[in-house]
Each structure stands twice: as C-alpha cells, then as structure tokens.
UniProtKB/TrEMBL annotation:
Positions of the Dicer dsRNA-binding fold domain: 126-206
Name of the protein in question: Dicer dsRNA-binding fold domain-containing protein
Organism, as annotated: Durusdinium trenchii
One Pfam family per UniProt: Dicer_dimer
C-alpha cells in the first residue's frame, strides 16, 4: 500500500498541491484548475491522474491504492515530486503581490515542460500497455510480481524480481521476465517491468493488437440475435471473454481444472483435440467466470468439468456445460 506523506503541519499532499498552485499562479485556484480522474482496476484497486489546468495542463498519475481518496493523494504526491525544484525557488509564506519578471516565468515554464512525470514508471507503463492489448481493465492476479532476496542475514546483497502476465494472449501469458539485481524490492520490480515492457514493445504483433480499436458494441436486440444463432460474429466492447467466438464443438468435453486466478482459469482436456489451436499454451484451455453455469464464481483446482469449446483471436476457450466428479488429471 502506498504511504501518504504529510508535512510538518499535518497537511496531506492534495492540500499542499493546492497551496503550491496558488503560490505559483498568484491567485486562488478553482475546481477547474486542479482536476482528478480516478479509474478502478479489479475489486479494490484505484489509480488517479491529476490534471493541472492552471499549469499548462500537466498530468501526473499516482500509484495503485485501495481507496479512491488515497489514489488522489498519491497523484498529488507525484505532482509535488515533479515540482520540487520550482517549489524550493518560490518565496516562503504567503504569495507575493507582484508577479515575477517575465524572464523568470519563462524559465519556470521551461522547467515544467521539460520535467518527466515521475509517476509514469515502467510498472505503470506496462500495466497500461497490457490493458490496451487485452482491451479491458486488468484484474488482480493478471500481472504477477515475485521478488527474491539474495544473500542472507540483515544485510542482503540485493533483490531480484520476476513478472508474469497471464492477461496476455497465447504463449505470452506463460512467459517469465526477470529483472536485474537491485538494492530494494521496489527497484527490483521496476527492473522486471522494464524488461517485460521492452519485450512487448519490440513485438510487432502485440503492438498491432494494442493499436486495434475496440469494435462497437451491438444493440441488445442484435446481440441476442447473433448469440441465438451461434457464437461466430458476436462481439461486445470489451476483450478477454468477450472477443468474437467461433464454436468448435457443441458436444460436452471432459476437462480438469489446472488453476483458477479469481475471474478466470485454465483447464486441460481429458482427451486430445485435433485442432490447430489445441497446441497453444501447452494444451491449456482458457475458461472465464462469465462462462460458468448456475451463477458460480470460481472453480477448484483438480475439479472435473464438462465444457463446450470455441476459438477466438487469443486461442482455444471453454464454456462450462456441466460438472463431473472431482479428481486428478487424466
């Protein structure tokens, strides 16, 4: 969880940002001067972006937080970090009555324009790229960081992190990206994110997928009509389980649950399937929560289910048609 910094007078980052903007602009700020926009990711993760319209519309993104208010404070905190040099150069106390000479204002504005947003870390950039590829917000468990301490005792020699991205299509969902050895866990995770980000940006197919526009969502009548005939040609505005589908087999096929990750999981077919997509993901078949029967929210590892199969642009997927006895892999 992100820790919110306070100054000696106990002011939070949003209050300090307001005061800084007033001192810089030499006037009271309005609601339109400082705007916060907050996005929810998964069940309990929020990220805010603060837009400073009073300062050339600069934008700063905060870290992921468990509450919307904390997300806004994190964004304000990142903006304050970006303007540390400018804040230090302003006169202490109340704003001066006269504006600084134009030459000084030009220099300050140049510093603002040249400043790099410190909140746009490799982790944030990687998360944004993955959302563009998946065409939806990511849920918990779809970007997995694991950090290992190197050395023993109270003075470890460093930390190394890996990141796996199950939200990505096909073989990319199984790849593991290892970062360099760093002095702390945060830096180790950023290193792993940077290496993963570089690999994704160098892949032409993934970049093309990220640039694809989301198809327009059909009307309710059109959606029901298309779904009533078959899955082929039916789509909605999101990605993942809502990509256009082509039915492979209506007959129930037995499968065993390999793992479940909150809103989706992977199953393995009991009998080999002769289909070009069957060899992808080492034989694993994607199954999303919305394709479970009877309002179920999850499956248990080792559980046997009966599914119908489909393909989409990501590979082979399954929709539950019934349950069997729980057991091991066959």
């Amino acid at each position: 969880m992100v820790e919110m910094e306070e100054d000696n007078e106990g002011m939070d980052s949003k209050t300090r940002l307001n005061q800084f903007c007033q001192r810089y602009c030499l006037r009271p700020v309005t609601r339109k001067d400082i705007l916060y926009s907050t996005t929810k990711f998964g069940n309990k993760q929020y990220q805010s972006i603060v837009r400073l319209n009073c300062m050339e519309s600069q934008e700063y993104a905060g870290e992921l937080c468990e509450a919307p208010k904390d997300a806004e404070k994190s964004a304000a905190q990142q903006a304050l970090k970006a303007f540390q040099a400018v804040i230090a150069s302003l006169p202490a106390g109340k704003p001066v009555k006269k504006k600084p000479p134009p030459s000084e204002l030009d220099e300050v504005n140049k510093q603002i324009a040249d400043a790099e947003n410190p909140a746009l870390t490799d982790k944030v950039k990687l998360n944004a790229l993955c959302m563009r590829i998946a065409k939806r917000p990511l849920e918990k468990g779809e970007t997995i960081y694991e950090t290992q301490q190197l050395g023993v005792g109270k003075n470890p020699s460093g930390y190394q992190a890996t990141v796996r991205l199950p939200c990505l299509p096909e073989d990319w969902a199984m790849k593991l990206f290892a970062g360099e050895v760093c002095q702390n866990k945060q830096a180790a995770e950023q290193s792993a994110a940077g290496i993963a980000l570089k690999a994704l940006e160098e892949d032409q197919a993934l970049c093309a997928l990220a640039e694809e526009k989301v198809p327009k969502k059909p009307s309710e009548k059109e959606g029901k009509k298309a779904k009533g005939k078959s899955w082929k040609g039916w789509w909605v505005s999101k990605g993942g389980p809502d990509l256009p589908r082509e039915l492979v087999s209506e007959a129930p096929v037995a499968a065993t649950v390999l793992e479940w990750k909150g809103s989706f999981g992977w199953v393995k077919l009991s009998q080999p399937l002769e289909h070009p997509a069957a060899s992808k993901r080492e034989g694993k078949v994607y199954l999303h929560r919305q394709d479970l029967k009877d309002g179920k929210e999850l499956l248990v590892e080792g559980e046997m289910v009966f599914v119908s199969l489909y393909t989409d642009s990501m590979g082979l997927g399954a929709a539950e048609t019934g349950s069997g006895q729980r057991g091991g892999l066959t």
